[in-house]
Write a structure and sequence with these properties.
Layout: H1 8-18, E1 25-32, H2 53-63, E2 68-74, H3 83-94, E3 101-106, H4 112-122, E4 126-129, H5 142-145, H6 148-157, E5 160-163, H7 174-186, E6 191-194, H8 195-199, H9 206-213, E7 219-222, H10 229-238, E8 244-245, E9 259-263, E10 266-270, H11 286-301, H12 305-322
Parallel strand pairs: 1-2, 2-3, 3-4, 4-5, 5-6, 6-7, 7-8
Antiparallel strand pairs: 9-10
Amino acid sequence: MTVIDHRDIDRRIWEGELEDYVPGRLYDMHVHMWSEAHAGDSEKSGLRLEIDYQDHLAWAEALYPGREIHYLVLATPIVGMDAHGHNEWMAAEMAADPRSGVNMMVTPAMSPEYVDAMVERHGFVGLKPYRTFAPDPAEAPIRDFLPEPLIEVAHQRGLAVTMHLSKRAGPADFENLADLERYTRVYPGVRWILAHCARGFNAVFLEEAIHFLKGLPGIWYDTSAVNDVYAHYLLMKHEDRRRVMYGSDNVVAGCGRGKYVTYAGAWHFHGGDPALPHCDPEATWVIYEQLRQERQVAEMLGLTRSEIEDHFWGNAVRFFRELGR
């Protein structure tokens, strides 16, 4: 069980800024699980943290007291891991909550026949490719970490694909946009979730791309780990808000202490500066920083209570309904 470092600053932010904003029911469409039992030949990585379904429920009670919560669960991607064992373990863990869903972690080495059989066996609602398994994770086209035969499986089975775009320009990259246009046209059975506001950690990537993405069919978004208020604003201003779903990236990223800050064409994690003399320098959880941005955008755009509840719950319910869940 992960120790939950719940501090007074977290309670103050929750009670003063978030408690009246976050609805009573949440679908978190982007959380990760991990078990060291599936480490395989991987080297130690800072991305991994032992966490199962019961741990997630404990974290949720600390983060959002008294709320009902369900999940779309994703793997933790570690090169050299036992992917097969990890997928089977996630499916077994989440059998305890029929309202939640699990995406099968897929790698380029997996055959479409194997992926299809695993989906049939475990009832995965979608696929989760990771750029970390591409030859060049920083500049990989989609096909390098999600081969087209696996997209065909998702199309035939009517699956979701949750995807963190690669390339340094992310959603602003011409090849990424051209690929998404073709895939959404050729494989209409796929429901694409573009993670992290379409990898819009820095709003500069979304300023033009959002006007292209909003015209594509079968595209949805999760808001996980984005701490740039203008990125959330662009998405909620220009997209169909029914396609934007809440996600946290809990717990490794979402429950780190600090904030993802942006500059120029970049973003990085900043853990706060305990030496600041002119203010309280203590940091809260990344997910609370994200929720603060989302609340501010809701106020800027005048979102109705119904739209806020849809963002956290109703949009995900409709999404799962499209998947036949």
